[in-house]
Model the fold of this input.
Amino acid sequence: MNRKIIFKCVAGFVKIILTTVVASFIIFFVIYIFEDNSQLQDFFGNNIVIAYYNWLVNFIQLDWGWVVRSNMKIVPYSYNDQSIGVINYLLRTLSYGAAGIILALAISSIFTFFAVFFYSIPSRLLLKILSYISGLHIIILCFFIKIVLGHSEGFHILVIFAIALGSNMFSDIYYYQLDQFSKLLEQDFITAARAWGDSVWKHARRSVGLGLLTQWNALVSTIFTSTIIIEYYFKVDGIGHALHKYLIEPNLSYPDDKVESLFFMAISFTVIFIVLILNTVKNEIYLKFSTSGNNK
Amino acid sequence: MMYRIKILFLLLLTLLLVVLSMYQIILPDRGDTYFYDAPGNNGERMTWASPFSGGYPGVNKVSTKKVKLYLGTDYDGNDLAFRISKGVFSSMLLSFLAAVLIFVFLGSSLGIIIGFNRAKTTIKELLNHQESSLRIVYHLFQGTIDYVLQIINAIPMLLLVLISVIVVEKSLYDANQLLKLALCLFVYGLLSTPKLAFLIKDKINTLEDEDFIDAARASGISDNKLVFTHIIRYECSSIIFLQAINIFIQAIMLETVIAFLGYGVRQIKYETIGKLISEFKDYLPGTVMGDPLAILPIVMLLLIAFVGNSWSKELLDEQYE
Done:
């Protein structure tokens, strides 16, 4: 049994690594072929496969290169201002995204629960309004936050609300949970549990988790996009801000300079790796969740 | 009842967008600059009026002809309705031609390739059953395409789009900006194809066990007719339509994001929704020229697009169920 689990873990990890390598090669290929003024040709040779191999070996040895304009070294984790830590930025982005998703899930679960099981009209109304607001693009929400607050401080909390609501994230979770709770309400064991005076929440919990897991793939990309835009707009530290600071802004201001391809490759590889790990963990949890439900 | 009301509103929203995009064609002379027949703060004539202010007719700077400017003007005296109309028209056209067409065509084709006649056995079993080598090669081809699509699906879209934007911007520095934008949207459409391909693959996998497929095969219907008529046209058309609408709106939004990041269309003679948004963000309260009314029509436009997208999604979901 243990050997089976170990084999499964190793196989899963190898699959993640392989997919990350192929995906990062696609990005490397695009930059290498179409961009003749990048760091990749200069440092890793004229043959694309060998160049990618060289870059990958350097990357694995944690030699992630440096940023052209400021000459700052790119490192996995930075402890000072002399280097750029990719994971520092990534952790901030992930924490904002996680806060947003937890907020969306909590609001949706609580109010959908009251709306479905206790027929609460205010909850239903609130959810409907929130789901419509959720249809707004994150940029419009940024505008609204700025129109309401102007340039005053204290928008950090609203940023999390914006991530939770913007670009359909809330509505996706809400519609799935509404569907699941409505189906659950029709089940005989729920009627029996309610007649018995048992807590319905105990049974609804599973739907809450499944709601999150089934929407996971879509949510991860939405979180990344929303958080990157928010960070870019409000200059909040994270991947979006880093991309703006080290890639977009120099590229727009000094178009003749080299593209920060090493920085972009480091960010891409790390982000793809993290996303794949999150998706794999989700698949395992989902399998466990749904199987345990069937056993019951 | 709600279903009909939603359809009616959706039609009205579409009509509104079409009328808006037709404004520049019906009134092509509105591309000139105007001032207002009213005194400004220092006694001079106003060259800018916020939308919905009304009351003062716009006066053409060259011909001095008086006209009604429905949404006021921007700070340079250009008719805002005309600019928005041009922006809506070019954004819609670019999204459709560059992103939606390739998405629908390639997504459906790849979905059929990876879904139809898919071996439900492993390669080892295929070899043991002494399948023809052509069939084994075909199954390998299907598996490879499936894997490549999964990999593309695993990369966060914004990263890929961002790098394509930067690459297009640098490698085609002097090219037409609308063409560069079209290329970026084309890349977006291309990279979104796994979504549609996987949906069609799943649908085909479900349908292959259905009785009517066996019956159609028994009655001698060719594979081509089975795929294109029975599966794609009758069973997958709603999925394709739903996804196409989604990509259409998402492409418009992506153009907004690209412009918002500082790329996109910047030349004066072209207008897109993204260009208007990024230009008018300087008019937010707290900024030097801040006035919320100035940005209102543009934000309203994005709202219309999103409400339309949400409703069309809901309606098609209902219909699909």
